[in-house]
Amino acid sequence: MGGSVGIVALGLRDQTSQPGTVAQAMVSPVQTEPGVPPDYAIANPDETDSAHVDLARGLAPSVVRVDRGSVRGSGIIIRDDGLVLTAAAVVGEGGEVAVALGDGRLLSGTTVATDALTGLALVDLPGEGYTETELTEVPASDIYGQSTLAIGVDDDGRLVLDAGDVAAAPSRVDRADEGLPALDGVLAVDTTVDPVVRGGPVIDEAGNIVGLTIWSDDQWTYAAPNATLRKVVDDVVDTGQVRHTWLGIDGYEASDNGWPAGVAVARVAPEGPSAGVLQNGDVIIAIDQQLVSQMSALVVELRAHDPGDVIQLSYRRNGQPGARTAPVVLTPRPSSLNSE
Predict the structure, then answer these.
(1) CB of 85 within 8 A of CB of 229?
(2) What is the pLDDT of residues 57-86, one digit of tens each?
(3) Where are the beta strands (DSSP E) in 69-153?
(4) Which fold has domain 1-241?
(5) How far is residue 71's CA from residue 91's CA, in Å, rounded to a whole number?
(6) pTM of the model as a whole
């Protein structure tokens, strides 16, 4: 489970400063003139029903367009002091980005965190008083198989809406061809989105943010789930970095190899937290009594923890019925793995 993490310590810029405009000839502000209330026009009205329009417009004051060079994307304001959550694929290597608000302002934002393992990034805007939206807790189990709506903003400031149903289980996206780490534990939505939607929120039928669009291919759109959004934000705000845990194993899905459902252990790192507990060939079946039938489910359970947490690891050995359980103290993910 390789990946890379790039973090800039979150010393949110001086909040007494006033929002300023960014001078980039290649980027234009949204269609609304400053001082004129936005109408939140829909870019694809023929593909959108009225219920989706109402939901999107309710969230629209917090949805922004994020541009870095020729890359266009979206984001969501999650704090009134200007913290924007977006996709790492939008901000690239970070630095300054242009952020267009629905009221017509075009601001210069600073990337304060990027995390390749979750596909998320955080951008800080100058000043305060922004319209924020709350990341309320929505369990992923409540989202699997449900209808959702992805929201973004196009170059003219219009809302771009894409509806789709979420697959019934967490997914894994292999991005080796792009030179990027795999995305584990993501929501897979059966729709292809406009590129400008990447980085924008995904909401359920009640208008709750259940994820954020981070990647797409020619069949699916992938979103970081709600729990991942909240963990990344909390980690960066509290510590200046995303805290990833490490179990110290290489594994594969045992159900694909004739084993009982779970994650089969291919290698145990001698210096890892599982050394002395697991052996090659063991099959991990649960963490804290939460079943893990595939690698993505294992990642989801581990991501809910911080380094230093003690988990109860349940596993089978030698194909025998019944399970063994042992405590394991999770450790920080080694930096040497970040380039894999």
Answers:
(1) yes
(2) 999 999 999 999 999 999 999 999 999 999
(3) 71-79, 83-87, 96-100, 106-115, 120-124, 147-153
(4) Thrombin, subunit H (2.40.10)
(5) 8
(6) 0.84
